[in-house]
Amino acid sequence: MISKEIVMEFLLRNKLSTLATITKEVKPEADTIYYFIEPNFDIFFLTNSGTQKYKNIQYQDDVCMVVTDAEKKITAKIKGKAALVLDKDFPKKILEKIAQMANTGDKFDTVYPILKRNDGALVVMKIIPFEIRYSDYGGDGIEEGTVTF
Questions:
Q1: Per the structure, how many domains does the chain have?
Q2: pTM of the prediction?
Q3: Is 120 within a domain?
């Protein structure tokens, strides 16, 4: 059985994911994002207010995020609702957290591509998951399960 602890450990080990959003024309889009996760499973990522993913989320807040460990053959598909974090001090906190995760001190601009963009203000987005589907194909069989919130 897949527990929240197994899923959390997997999500903490990884930093990179693919985020799927929906355009106003009801077309799918996907972007690679760096994320971090809180103990309550809230997921945060940085973007700019001029990016298509930001615009898509403003239009339709349903998102799907996939985290993959190709070597271990494990995936987690996260379905949830995304929203803008309105706390004005939060982007700095996120940047500090990202720098710690990357072990780069204050040099996070060399690691995270979003910081090299200039199409709008830097904003923090939050994903509140309602379902995480975890699949481990690395062993003899398949170990999978769903965690709901």
A1: 1
A2: 0.86
A3: yes
Check if the beta carbon of residue 15 is closer than 8 Å to that of residue 101. Answer: yes
121: Cβ–Cβ under 8 A, 6 or more apart, which residues?
48, 49
Residue type, 107: K
Q: What is the CATH number of the domain that holds 48?
A: 2.30.110.10
Tokens of 9: 């450990």
CA-closest candidate to residue 58, choices 28, 18, 21:
21
Is there a domain that residue 22 lies in? yes
Over residues 67-115, the pLDDT tens digits come to 999 999 999 999 999 999 987 766 667 667 666 665 554 444 455 666 6
CA distance 147 to 130: 8
d(CA 32, CA 141) in angstroms, rounded, equals: 29
Residue 96's CB is within 10 A of a number of other CB atoms, namely 12
> Does 143 fall in a domain?
no
